[in-house]
Specification:
alpha/beta
Length: 313
């Protein structure tokens, strides 16, 4: 069988990340198989990020297409995500935050998985679920987010944050007319994931780690906890309203539980707390292991127990 041509574009989104941009780029060009295109999409950095990216490409010439796009003004995460479909030429996309990195073998793993799954990047709309590892700023204390596809559905999996959709190896078609609701704050990222996975008619799974995330370096680490909680509440409400007709009864019960819990955290209403607790009990069997504090049952379990289970697993 002749496989459709896979043209893999890797997009680095950067803003004032001069300390990490070279590490991120090295993780891309040191792959066992290179991607077909590397694009740095910079959000008008005021440090040396752009200069270092250009210097990297000039000093380490590679035989693939590469570009550095610099916004004329800072437009934010949402607008940059929307811009990706305008600048890439590939049919398979991986997105990398410039303060994170890609494990070696990512590009070859994606190529093999797409081919073995008999997917056509020019026709099929698909996403990739894969493990990611989260490290602290020193590269220590790893937390593994494993793959656990829920109910054989990309949409239901993203809805529950059940497996990491690390934004690697998805088809360009998934970006078409895809909204990134910037008014939701940082948890708009979750709403976008759900939207991408709702559009996908297929998915594939890679069991090797495909993304390395560094905690405490991104924009979320600089946001106040109250703003993050409010953003999560708004994102849950947005998802509930936008995908109401798409969701099953169990989906609706889950997202209502998320909404009322975050609403309680924001407003400290006892009524919201009891509603969230009821939904947590109803949704208990949607709980698939203590892999993240955000899991619905884990909120009512002491942190030390969560860390103990993580260590045992």
């Amino acid at each position: 069988m002749e496989f459709p041509t896979i043209k893999h574009s890797i997009v680095l989104i950067s803003y004032n990340q001069e300390e990490f941009i070279t590490r991120a780029l090295n993780s891309v060009v040191n792959q066992t198989i290179l991607p077909d295109e590397i694009i740095v999409l910079d959000d008008c950095s005021i440090d040396q990020t752009v200069e270092l990216a250009n210097k990297f490409f000039s000093q380490k010439p590679i035989e693939i297409s590469y570009s550095v796009f610099v916004n004329k003004k800072n437009i934010g995460i949402a607008a940059n995500i929307k811009k990706i479909s305008e600048v890439v030429t590939g049919n398979v996309i991986s997105i990398l935050a410039a303060d994170d990195e890609l494990p070696n073998g990512l590009v070859s793993n994606i190529k093999c998985a797409i081919e073995s799954s008999r997917l056509d990047p020019n026709k099929d709309i698909f996403v990739c679920f894969s493990p990611l590892i989260s490290l602290d700023t020193n590269g220590e204390n790893p937390v593994l987010q494993n793959v656990n596809v829920y109910n054989n559905s990309a949409f239901e999996t993203a809805l529950r944050k059940n497996s990491s959709f690390a934004k690697v190896g998805f088809s360009k078609g998934a970006l078409h007319e895809q909204d990134y609701p910037e008014n939701l704050g940082l948890w708009a990222d979750w709403a976008w994931d759900v939207g991408i996975c709702a559009k996908a008619n297929k998915y594939y799974v890679i069991r090797d780690i495909c993304y390395t995330h560094y905690r405490g370096l991104g924009v979320s680490s600089k946001e106040s906890e109250s703003k993050l909680n409010e953003s999560y509440m708004n994102a849950a409400l947005y998802i509930m309203e936008k995908y109401n007709e798409r969701m099953s009864v169990r989906d609706k019960l889950f997202i209502l539980g998320e909404y009322y819990y975050s609403k309680y955290i924001v407003n400290r209403s006892k009524f919201d707390f009891f509603k969230s607790l009821i939904f947590a009990l109803v949704n208990f069997f949607d709980f698939r292991g203590l892999v993240a504090k955000k899991n619905i049952a884990a909120r009512y379990i002491p942190d030390f127990f969560i860390f103990l289970v993580r260590k045992i697993k």
